[in-house]
Each structure stands twice: as C-alpha cells, then as structure tokens.
Amino acid sequence: MSKINHFIPEHRIAYFTMEVALKSEIPTYSGGLGVLAGDTVRSAADLELPFVVVSLVSRQGYFRQEIDASGRQIEHPDPWEPSQWAEALGAKIAVKIEGREVWIRAWLYVLQGHMNGAEPVLLLDTDLDENHADDRMITHHLYGGDEAYRLKQEIVLGIGGVRMLQALGFKIRHYHMNEGHSALLGLELLQSFAHPQEDLREGESPYNLPRVRDMCNFTTHTPIEAGHDKFSYDLVDRLLGEVIDPGMLRSLAGSDCLNMTRLGLNVSEHINGVARKHAEVSRRMFPGYHVDAVTNGVHPFTWTHPAFSNLYDQYMRGWCHEPGTMVRADLIPDEALWQAHVEAKRQLIEKVAAQRSIHLDPERPILGFGRRMTGYKRPDLLFSDLRQLKKIAEKQPFQLVMAGKAHPHDEGGKKLIETLQEQIRTCVDWITMVYLPNYNMDIALAMVSGADVWLNTPLRPLEASGTSGMKAAFNGVPSLSVLDGWWIEGCIEGVTGWAIGPETESANGDDAVDLYRKLETVVLPLFYQDRSAWIKLMKGAISKNASFFNSHRMMRSYTTEAYLR
Ligand SMILES: *Cc1c(COP(=O)(O)O)cnc(C)c1O
C-alpha cells in the first residue's frame, strides 16, 4: 500500500517551493533558498505540523561543479534516480502548455523528522511516455534553460501542484509560497473557487479573491528588483493561454508584464520578508503592501556537528525540540566545548586534505566562506588590498577555506571564482587557502563546524537574510560579518562575533578597511592570546544566536503569524 494514505486524512498546509534540499545526495536545490525550504520541512516534521511540500523532481539536478586547472567553473549534469529515494504515485494530472496536454505525476519522498514526525514531499515529474519529447524535459533542470522553460516549470509547479494535491485527495487548509516561482497557484485557486457564470449578476466578477487571499501567504527572498521573475504577456499567452480573465490577471500581476512577485503579493493575506531589515527593504520596493518579518532560521539537528550535539544532549537536554534551551550554553564546561571544536576542525582539515591535498594547520585559525558566488556577496573583498592582507597574515597567520557555486548564467559570479583561484595562487606563500568544489550540504556542515570564524561580506542591503552564519552559531563558531540581513539582529559586538562596518546602507565602500582592522586588532589577537575569552565567545554564539535563529522558532512564527491567522 502506498505510504501516501497515511498523510491524506489530516487537513494540511501546502508549502510550494521551486527547490528543496532534502539531503546532499538529492540535488534538487541550488543554495540558500532550497536549504531553507529543507530546514522548513525538517522543523515542520519535528514539530509535527500537518504539512505537505510541493516541488519539482529536477532529475538532472542543478549542476555538479568542477574547477578546472585554469580556475574556471565547469558545470556537469548532476542526475539522480528518484526511484531510489521516492515512491512513484499512481495519480496523473494534466496542464495545458503551448496548446498541448502536459501530463504530470508525482514522486513521494517521505521526510522523516529527527523525532516522531514525518512529512510528505511531492516531486512533480513530466518525464512520461505520453508527453511530447520537449515537455518531458520540463522538470529536468533546476533553473536551467531560457525564459520559456522557466515559465513552463512555474506552470507545472503552481498550477500542476494544486491539481496534483487535489487528485491525490489532500485537503489543503493553507498555501505557503516560498518565493514567487509558485505564484501561479493563486490563479488556479481563483479559477477553482470561481462562481459559475449562471449565478452571476450582470457585471459581477466570478472570482472570490478574499477567499484565496485568506488561504495564502507569500515569502519574498529577493531585495533586488531584477531578481524577480517577469514574463511578457506574449509569452504567457503563448504558453499558458487564458487561465483567468485577462483584466483580472493584469490587475493582480502587473499591467505591462506578468510579475510573479506582484502576483504572490496580491493573492496573499500575509506577506513576509526573511529578516527585519529585508522586510523594511521590501516595503520600500513594494509600497502599499504590508510586509512583516519572519527572520529565517536553520534546523538544529541538521546543522550541528555530532561532537556538539552529544554535548548539547548532555548539558541542554531537549535542545532539538526546544532550541530555546540553548540560552543555557554557559553550563557546558570550557574544555569539553573546546574539544568538540577541535574534533570538528580536525574533520574539516581531513576533508580538505582528501579533496585538495592541502594541509591546514590545526593550531592556526581557519576563516570559512561558503555560499553562492555572485557579485553582491563580494567573496573577493578580503583580497582588496593584498599588501595589507600580507602584513596581517605574516604577523598572525590564518587560513581560509572557501566554496560556492555560481549560477551558470551569472558571468560575473563565474569570473569571481576564477579571480579567487588566482588570489589563492598569489597568496600561497603567506596564507594557506583552499577552494572546495561542488558546495553542498555536506561540505557546508563540514565548513560551518570546522572553521574558527565564519566570514560574510555582502553589499548592503542585498543579503536578504543569509543562513550559513546561523549554522556556524550552532557549532559555536562566531561570525565576522557586514551588518546586513540576519546579522543586524544576531550581532552583539564581541559577544556573538563582530561587525564589519556600520549598519548604514551607504557604508559599503569602507568595508575592506574595517575588515582588515577587525582581523588584525581584534579577531586574531583574541584567537592567539586568550583561549578562555574565545570559548566565552563560542558560548555567546550558541546561547544568544542558535537559541533564536533556528527553524523551529521560524515555523512557530509562521504558524501563529500566517497559517493560523
Ligand atoms: C546554507 C547554505 C547556503 C546559504 O548560505 P548563505 O550564507 O546564507 O548565502 C548555500 N548553499 C548551501 C549548500 C548551504 O548549506
């Protein structure tokens, strides 16, 4: 019997997301957004919230990254076999794309919580015999292809997703759109709740927008206008045809083009940004909308190295269910905490040696930097002034481990990766640096737990939240970061880590100077000269930040602010 039956009876919250990081071996995610989606479901499972996830199967994955001898990113397909992890469900539904019926089935992946709960994850798949060869590829490549390909994927996700839930017999009490990719679900809901034509008075709209809005909430993640999906109405007409009245569509999604973010905003009662600052930036970008903040968090068990979870089990029992208990991190004996860190660091050093044949020194501090490689993240900020950098490293040596993928279409990001490889060669005599290829969840955990300091240097105010620094906090690793995104809320200078520059949005130009100053006069001296003060800092990161910036707290907020409103 199919495992799906177990999940049908209870009324559920449907969480729609283009990408979701279920585990390292399943490449249905590209980076932060997908990992956040994964942590969302993991917490929903632990908290036993009635949830169901709708996403795409992305059979060819995002891509596997290789860095070639000249330092360039090479993108390989990263296929996976759904049948190895998931169950093919019998139900099939169709959506019309470009005038053709496109048949969709779903794979059921059961996400087992760390405790009792489990959540169904539906991965939509168009690779079926009955489909036209072109249509079979719609769910192959995550973020691949051109605009038309993207719109087809969003039709499958938003419209196909709602129909699939219905076909499987799910009773949905609420819809959560994780970013604009799934906003077409709003159109499908409007259509399905529409009053029949014969019941309408002359000129009356058939649509029940308040009812749809009441059931939906929308989370925006992108503080850059250009980052929002927009499609010309020509393309929409050609691929999607007329789902709802064209006038209604334009009033919801924009008059000159279909803006997925606008659509998401207009069909949702509750709208949120992913940190306080990001909500403020979003309100500026979308005047007239009420945008709340639900600050992101990371999943406790997933992002804690076993050496630390053992300690937490001993000194802060129940932390996995109620991470708020981590405010008591002071109870952990200093030496035990340090030994856990030594163990995590040893494992990172081993991983680096195995993958890159470079030997890091366990006695010297390791700075970690891992995230998507793209212009606004400024992974090259540390290399702004090589003379200065050399001067610092010669007196107080440190090491650097970096990783991250650039989106295949992001030429700037790919160029940055090349530049970083060049810097690594230039600085080889005075800083040991490595770039680990193919950043994924496993490498992320090794880095956020094995580094001594977690570095983040985005251009304000473009880091909507950032989550890797929260993962570091779960492993007692302090952040050294520009005050943007979550760090505005998480930074207590000298207690949880350190700020680079002030909070002012225009301060970006002076960040390199401040980064060097902090490293040279605060961070490195503390590491080398005062072990006990350093351990106090580690406890500050755990007690003040892990206790709050976790996805259990985030999901409890979504429940009271959005789902149960
Ligand atoms: C956490 C994570 C990210 C996001 O990192 P940010 O610092 O928030 O940009 C990206 N990729 C992977 C694999 C991650 O685990």
Structural class, please?
alpha/beta
Helix content: 25-40%
Q: Mean of residue pLDDT? A: 97
What does the largest sheet look like? 9 strands, mixed
Q: Kindly state the number of beta strands.
A: 19
Unreliable runs:
none
The molecules bound to the chains, other than polymers, are:
pyridoxal-5'-phosphate
- The CATH topology of the largest domain comes to Rossmann fold
Rough outline: globular
* Ends distance: 36 Å
CATH A-level architecture of the largest domain: 3-Layer(aba) Sandwich
Radius of gyration: 24 Å
CATH class of the largest domain: Alpha Beta
For the largest sheet, list the strands in their spatial order: 5-6-7-2-1-8-9-12-13
Let me know the CATH homologous superfamily of the largest domain: Glycogen Phosphorylase B
> Beta-strand level of the residues, as a percent range?
15-25%
Into how many domains do the coordinates divide? Answer: 2
Q: How many separate helices?
A: 20
